[in-house]
Design a protein that fits this description.
Length: 82
């Protein structure tokens, strides 16, 4: 089971506290979910398992194949482009 580092918790707090960061985070999350090539049945089983275990970091990995840190890096890159 994945756990959040203090750095990742700080990243999530930044998402909570800033509308632009929150919007960019969701845009990237949806793009990554759409482009993930894992079979839907596998993704669904893993997602259900990790939801039952209350493991948010694993849920993100199941949905899009990326960690909180990797997604936040993409958020920062996209925001620098704006």
């Amino acid at each position: 089971m994945l756990t959040l580092s203090d750095r990742e918790k700080d990243m999530l707090k930044a998402i909570i506290n800033d509308d632009e960061i929150a919007e960019t985070f969701v845009e990237i999350l949806l793009e990554e979910i759409d482009s993930d090539d894992e079979k839907l049945a596998t993704k669904g089983r893993n997602l259900a398992r990790h939801l039952l275990e209350n493991s948010g970091p694993d849920v993100l990995m199941d949905m899009c194949g990326w960690t909180v840190s990797a997604l936040f890096k993409k958020v920062k890159e996209r925001m620098c482009e704006k």
